[in-house]
User: Fold Diphosphomevalonate decarboxylase from Leucogyrophana mollusca.
Amino acid sequence: MSVYQATASAPVNIACIKYWGKRDTKLILPTNSSLSVTLDQDHLRSTTTSRADPSFTKDRLWLNGKEDEIKDGGRLSTCIAEMKRMRKELEDKNPNEPKLSAYKVHICSHNNFPTAAGLASSASGFAALVKSLAALYALPASPSQLSLIARQGSGSACRSLMGGFVAWEQGTSPDGSDSLAVQVATREHWADIHALICVVSDDKKGTSSTSGMQRTVETSPLLQHRIHNVVPQRMRDISAAIQKKDFDTFARITMQDSNQFHAVCLETDPPIFYMNDVSRAIIALIVEYNRVSVEAGGKLKAAYTFDAGPNAVIYAPKENVREIVNMIVKYFPQAEPFKDPFGLFGTAGVQ
Ligand code: 2P0
Assistant:
């Protein structure tokens, strides 16, 4: 008897140009394009195994060992249905293929980092889910095509289908067919950039991204300015900076965009606060670190960015990483030592 099973992994991605706002909440179409860096596979990732079998009576999912309900019409069920639809197309074209699209699937997913750490597990989770189903169904789909489906699980997941520097192009089509991820540059193109993740708090965030961003869409005039007058130029400029490996421009835009994202959160009614006092102290430290360098005639040495929580991600060229680690540990003395500061993406506890 044949066993139909496949396993795939996908890493977390951290945005430099933030996705915040949907123009279509069902299809998950964003109000602006975004751009992120996909972390290396060996650090923060989800690994998912999917299995199809005629004996299964319903689709089921286990997340870190615990079963999660697959709600009808929900995001998971949409992604699974889309993948089955693509498999069915392939079976219709190739009548000798086993009819896997008719079987129920069991899906088992694990994160190699604590889900509670406030790091985007939905992005790596949905990307790994879509990749594992694509492997199970032997679909000849490109990462960009798969990104169209991962996007419907969680917007940011579409960017985790590729490594390196990835743009999610917002698209213009009402059916979402052009709202997909494209690789701007490979990881190898600019291997010198490292990311340090400073876990400021592992509390679960107060406002979910999904509900927070729609409140912002409904109440923030600054978001409209951001969508129309700010992000398009930033997308062009940061893409060019990545092509040129221009860290100064990359860092400036990344910090500006993090600041504007948190500004639109603050302007949301009622306001949303994701950063805390430690987050702001990390900003002050990086600003000072860069100021000293620039005043001495040098360049920016690091860039901070914060997502929907207080944890900091610091992007820096490799040569500055040790200095930054020492600085963080000095000014945040309770910080646990970085696990792997010279692995590409070390993590640190900063309390
Ligand atoms: C980002 N974030 O670009 C931004 C920055 C949070 C801050 O993508 O509703 O979890 O599932 O599409 O993808 C968080 O949004 O939201 C996010 P849904 P998602 O990484």
In short: The domain at 4-190 is CATH 3.30.230.10 (Ribosomal Protein S5; domain 2).
